[in-house]
Amino acid sequence: MHQCSGLLIFADVPDPETGELVLRLREAHFCRVRHCPVCQWRRSLMWYARFQKALPEILGRYPNARWAFLTLTVRNCDIKELRATISSMNDAWKRLTHRAEFRNVLGWIRTTEVTKGRDESAHPHFHCMFMLSPSYFKGSNYVTQARWAELWKECLRADYTPIVDIRVVRSKKVSREALKASRTSLEASNTSSIEEYLAAVADAAREVLKYAVKPSDMLGGGNDNEWFLELTRQVHRLRFIASGGALKDALREDEETEEDLILADDPAETPDYGTRVAFAWRRKEKRYRKAGKWES
To answer: Name one Pfam family in it (predicted).
Structure first.
């Protein structure tokens, strides 16, 4: 991780909206260590870009779907019990997907995040994004936050009620009536409403697809990094991202490459003018410095 992204080479690329030249990463060496802060950041951009690319087609197939953001928690555990706790959560999730209340969830994306407690404990929790059938919001089909908490407790087989939070995705700038009208056709001449809603859904996805561990939680006080080292042992080879239903293929969960991380914020690889600008990391200064510019 100490050698990750030591040299970054960018290209001048025209912004598709303004035409102004902006820098886009074209070459780099990433360590691809799971908990590297830089690689976590690039990886989250990669997942986000994949979701954004798939979203218009998904909304085309499910134009009346609604979206919600769900957080499922458990009590903090000892860091040495983290693997067993996450395994228990995964089993509980499987049970949850088979409950009757889950039938109106058309598709889902679920990520795992682990945060560090003040007492050096671990707090694993799930961030979930649901694509919901319109019937979810009708009559007895509606599942309240309190009911989600009960369901999660039952599926965990816990003796306490865990904290659960669910929020429906809404665009602040778009009325429900305007959104309903715009959904009739994604090819309509006036697409401002659907674009606003796409942005709101994408923002929710960004929250779900963020880092698995906060960079600030990776370091202990002084030279004590034992919490982070134990974390890496506990989560080795565990999957922290999953999807199902109509969203199963939305993230295209094939093995990532270094090119995926390089082009994470420019997946279409916008054509550039051949100019390259390099920046090198100066360890003593703890910052990047411009290291050269040339025509490729």
So the answer is: Rep_1
Q: Please state, in angstroms and rounded to a whole number, the distance separating the CA atoms of residues 190 and 247.
A: 27
Domain segments of the chain: what residues? 1-32+259-296, 54-255
Q: What is the average pLDDT value for the chain, to the nearest integer?
A: 83
Distance of CA 276 to the CA centre of its chain: 30
Q: What is the largest CA-CA distance in the chain?
A: 65
Q: How far is CA 36 from the centre of its chain?
A: 16
Q: Would the pLDDT of 191 be above 70?
A: no
Q: What pLDDT shows up at residue 208?
A: 84
* Residue 213 DSSP label: B
Contact 256, 46 (CB under 8 A): yes
Token reading at 33: 């260590």
Give the other-Cβ count within 10 Å of 204's Cβ: 22
Determine the length of the chain. Answer: 296
Instruction: Supply the DSSP symbol for 99.
Output: S
| Cα angle 216, 217, 219; round to 5 | 80
263 against 66, higher pLDDT? 66
Residue with tokens 């860091």: 79
| Average pLDDT rounded to a whole number, residues 143-148 | 97
In sequence order, what are the residues at sequence separation of 6 or more whose Cβ sits closer than 8 angstroms to the Cβ of residue 198?
55, 56, 59
Sign of CA dihedral 141, 143, 147, 149: positive
Shortest CA distance to 101 belongs to which of 138, 65, 147, 64? 147
